[in-house]
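note to self — DONT lose this again. spent like an hour looking for the file last time. sequence + predicted structure for the chain T wanted, 782 res
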Amino acid sequence: MKLQIDNSDGFGLRDYTPALDGSRLPLVTRKINQPAQLKFSLVADSPEFVVPIAGARVILGKTNGQDVFTGYLVEKPAYEFLGWGERGPVYRYNLIAQSDEALLDEKRFPDRSPFVERSAGNALRQLTGDLLPGVFDTSSAQDLDAMVWYASDPQKTWSQEAGEIAIYARASYRTVDGALILTPIGANIHALNETDADFDPSGLALEPVKAAINDVTIIGEIEPQAYVTDYFVGDGLTTRFYLSQTAFIKKSMTLFDEEYTTTPLEPTLWNVVDPAGVVSVSGGKLVIAGGTGIDGATTVQYVEQVELGPALIMQHGDVLFNAASDGVLGGLYPGSVSVTGCLAGFRIVPNGSQSNIQAVVNGALTGSVVATINGHHYLLTTRLYSQELYRRRQTFHSSAHPAGSGVGGSEIPADVRVVLELQDIDPTNPASQVAPALVLYDGVISGAPDFCTYALVNATNVQCSIAFTRMTQPVDTEVRSALPGQGYVTLLAGLLSEGAECTITSSGELEFYSAYVPAANQQIAVRYRGQGRAQARVTSPASIAGLQLGVDNGSRGTVRHVKLPPARMAADCENAALALFDDSTIPAWKGEYQVWSDFLPGNATDIFPGDTLSLNVPSRNAAFSAIVREIDIAVKDLAGEHCRYQIRFANDGAEPLGIEFEAAKVQIALDITQLTNSQVGNYYLADLTAAQITEVTSTTLEVNAGVLPPSGGGFEARWGDSGWGADNDRNLIGRFTTQTFAVPRLARGQGCYLRQYDASTPPHYSRYTTALYVDYPLSYTP
């Protein structure tokens, strides 16, 4: 076995094996989804001895070329005085090296948008390339499961984020000899059978663990809950209206703000396909100077998918057309980028020496046509509103649901309102800077896709410059208004300078700008989601019955707060509970096995954390599979290359690997609906997302539930969001078996709360409430 160190002094790898201190031979520690570590000590063996420097390259390997450890010294050696020798003082140099990711851990992550619908392997390869492009071989990092959403944190190291990403996919990572490896946990299996000739019973220690769980309460994140619609009416004077609940997202968040200050385009934001070389950055602008003439051949695409869930404002930019153009700007595409496949965008077609701008929706042109004017700028904006703020549920893993077959991950269907607007800015007319934007399209796309590709530019032949591009998530509210005798239109919320008419403040107020004070009897409807804590309680009746003994009723309860993957909704909490039940029903074991490297289980040449250890030890009544968690490799004989392995292992019953928990940070509500594991996924009825108030009088509110009542069931209306169920009438307005019904009106500001129920015994209800709130004068007359 040989220890080699490269001090980056031009001499390459030096052999330090003769300098190893025989009393402190090398020790390698490997931990699952953490950097490996090598500790060793050197004593100067010759006058030519060079004290290793911090950052030096370290390789500990066998003569057959198999590396036991590769990495870098992470700190200067610690000097330990041993006495005096012929040449002066003698020191022992104690050194610590970390595996290859030490290079990555020293770098700061660039600011980048959160990963959306990216596979774990893809995200890990991207983070690696962001820090050290081309340095690591990432071909062995498998894709594995997709992560719905993951935000890289510049305050964390690469290895910390790699460990988190591995949890999302129930995977293990390691780096060795410049290669990044990401594989499903348990992919490599090593058999440990007591009938094997090399089995050492004295080296095996087993510990059964008491870990049965059959009544679990899972606490998740703050989630969107009630479907809220607030109704107001203008009086010609009032500019501020107060929302009845706190909206789910309190503050706006900018996903990115591109000012085009770098060339080429920032790769953490854009993916450019430019076979004709017509895309460039110049003078703080993105310049498009032509195309190939082929639809979809020249594109500038955002590197992440766009989730059609949270409210989203996409400002495609201040566009100046230099000549007649043909293409699509600001397009959303469920599939490949093409005009016919465009879900929503701005279609640009030639019009003499100028161009026409028109909305394109589901591949078809629609709405008004705007002819460009030489020298004018055009601010193009897309606004998206969906009442389903998450479009895919989180995926959780267990030993029974490994990488590729997790629990959850289903799509959440939703209709999405799309508003395409254009602001025509004349540089010679300052008033045009704050003029209202022209709405080219305002409509709902039914059954909208959950994720789309965003192509800022799809240039068949585009001649323009774009000054900026910005994507923000505002407060998730949709504001619509109707003047007397007219239909509802979407009001533009945002900055006045961007053509907006109103804004939603961080304190939960709808505020109109002075130029847009609602007229007398102008109706206003604000739709958004309320908020609350995601939580669920799930039981396993079969397990409870099986553990009943004497006065013990068999219940084994626990409360867990999920850290990773985050449980964003109550349904995620339920799926996390199911994954936890998978592992709590198997006998829980942990232990360790000490063995010489010549006799590793299954005749393996090496073992790594994340490998499976399949144990069959009948004399100890132990037959189970466990995952290797940590390995200490103590070098005992350098010349003979003999090492002592201490392998620590546990199955998921003892230490779950698919979910990371932390101490609960909130008090638990007492009204969590308790479900059995068989009820998860089929207990709740659909939410009343389309319910609305259709008419307001001084004495009644006419309600349309938006759907027909369930067979044998109906709609339950209450004065408050509590007490749901057939046995509680304390705040009940009524139970109705028709789609439309009247609710008595008792005050100027009044709310009613709705859920539907079925004919089950006891009846099943919607998961989330629909809240309808009216603030109209009692004397209001339509």
